[in-house]
Amino acid sequence: MDANGCIVTKSNKKDTAPAQNEAAQSMAALTLQDTPKVKSKNLNVLEEFEKAKMKDAASFVVVGHVDHGKSTLMGRLLYDLKVVDEKTVDKLRRDSKKIGKASFALAWVMDATSDERERGITVNVATNYFETDQTRFTILDAPGHQDFVPNMIAGASQADFAVLVVDASTNNFESGLRGQTKEHAMLVRSLGVQRLVVAVNKMDTTNWSEERFNEIKREMTAFLTASNFSPKNVSYIPCAGLTGENIVAPVSPTKAPWYSGPTLVHELDAAEPTKRAMAKPLRLTIAEVFSSSPNNPVSVSGRIDAGSVQAGDRIKVLPGGATAGVKSIEADGAPRDWAVAGQIVVLNLADVDRAGLKHGDVVALANDPLRNRAAFVAKILAFEHVVPGFVDVHRGPMQAPGKVSKLVAVLNKASGEVEKKKPKVVQPGAVARVVVELESEMPIEAGNRVVLRSEGKSIAAGLVE
C-alpha cells in the first residue's frame, strides 16, 4: 500500500509513480489557474486618468420608429469613416441580395444576427465604435419595433445623448410620430438624456425638399418642447443613409442649395464633453456575461456609469450578491490597469461562478453599501393614466414585476411642490410621487432612472428619490 492508501504490486509500482507525480503537478497548476490572486497596484485612478490625457468619450443611442433607417444610417456612417472596409460591405451586399434584401446591406453592419437579417429589423442593442479627432464614440443602435421597447430602454440607459431618426418620406414621418418616434423620445428624456440630434433621414426620397425638412422640424420642435426637451439641446440634420449624403461628407449644393449646416458627424462631435462621474462609487451595468478565453472563463462587459475600477479590486454583483476578483481589464480594445466612468469595458473575473451573474446586474466594489430594495419612492412623469396596480419595473436592462402601491401626490412640473395629495389617478403628462413595491428585490438607489410598463406600453418614467 502506498502513501495515498492505494494497493500496488512490485510490477506496477515503478510505472505508476511518474504518472501520479504528473497528475499532482497538473492538479496544482489547475488550482493555481482557477484561483489567481491579482495584487492591486493601489493606483490613484483619478490621477492616472488626468495623466493619460484620454480622448473625450461619449455614448449615443440611436432611436426611432421601425423602418426609419436607423441601422442603415449607422452602417453608412461607419462605412464612410472607414471603420468598416470595402471588402466587408461587398460581402454584405452579395449576401443581402441573395435573400432579396439588397437595400439592407449597410443595415447589416449593425444587425449581425441571422434573425435580425431575415426579419429586416433590429432586435437587440448593437454596439459599435468610431473616433473623431477629439472624441471616441460608442454607438448603441436600439430596436425600433414596439415589441422590443425593453431592449431600447436598456440601450438608452447607457447613453450620454440620443440620435432620433425620423423618415422624411411622405406619410412615414407622420405615422412614426404616432408610434415609436413619440414613445422613444419621451423615454430617452425620462431616462435622463437631455441632448437630442434629430436625423431627418431619407431626404433623397423628397428630392431634398426644404419645405418638407422645415415642416418636420416645426412638428418635432413642438412635440419635443412639450416632452421637456430644451430647444437649445435639440438639433436637426437632414441626411440620406442609403445614398450617404450629409452623414460624413456634406450634401451637394446642387441637391440642397438651402442647407449649409453641419454634417451628422460634425454635429455629433459638437457635443460638450460628457462629465464623468468618477468621484462617485463604482456602478457598472452588465451588458453581457461570457468566456473571453480559456484563461478567462468568466468575463463581463458593460458601461461604467460611475466611479472607477482597477485590476485587483474585489467586486460584488447585485441583486444576486456574488463576489469576485478583477483579474484584468480591457477598455477601448486594449488591456488596461484601470477604467473610469463613461467607458465600456470588459472585466475578466476570478473566484466567481458564472451562474451567479446575468445581463442587467449591477457591479459595485465589495465594500460598497449598495443594497437590494423591495420598495422605493419615485418622482415620475406619466405617459398614460397611472393608477395603483401591477407594472413591470425597468432599471436599465434589469426588470422585475412590481406594483404601484400608492399615489402620494401630484406635483407642480416647474417647482416640484405638492399640488394634490393622494390622487386617485395620475393624468397623462402630469408629474407625481408614487410608491413602487417589487416582487423581487433590485439594487435601487436615489438618482436611478426607472421606467414603468404595463400591458406592453410604457406608462411612466422617472427618478428614484
What's the SSE blueprint?
Blueprint: H1 10-34, H2 45-52, E1 56-63, H3 70-80, H4 86-98, H5 114-119, E2 126-131, E3 135-141, H6 149-156, E4 161-167, H7 172-177, H8 180-190, E5 196-201, H9 210-226, E6 234-238, H10 264-269, E7 283-290, E8 299-306, E9 308-310, E10 314-318, E11 322-331, E12 334-336, E13 338-340, E14 344-350, E15 362-365, E16 373-382, E17 389-395, E18 398-411, E19 418-421, E20 431-442, E21 449-454, E22 457-464
Parallel strand pairs: 1-3, 1-4, 4-5, 5-6
Antiparallel strand pairs: 2-3, 7-8, 7-15, 8-14, 9-13, 10-11, 10-15, 11-12, 11-14, 16-20, 16-22, 17-18, 17-21, 18-19, 18-20, 21-22
Account of the 3D structure:
The chain is of the alpha+beta class and 465 residues long. The protein folds into three domains: 56-269, 3-Layer(aba) Sandwich (Rossmann fold), CATH 3.40.50; 283-365, Elongation Factor Tu (Ef-tu), domain 3; 373-464, Translation factors (Elongation Factor Tu (Ef-tu), domain 3, Beta Barrel), CATH 2.40.30.10. The protein has ten helices and 22 strands. The protein has helices at residues 10-34, 45-52, 70-80, 86-98, 114-119, 149-156, 172-177, 180-190, 210-226, 264-269, and strands at residues 56-63, 126-131, 135-141, 161-167, 196-201, 234-238, 283-290, 299-306, 308-310, 314-318, 322-331, 334-336, 338-340, 344-350, 362-365, 373-382, 389-395, 398-411, 418-421, 431-442, 449-454, 457-464.
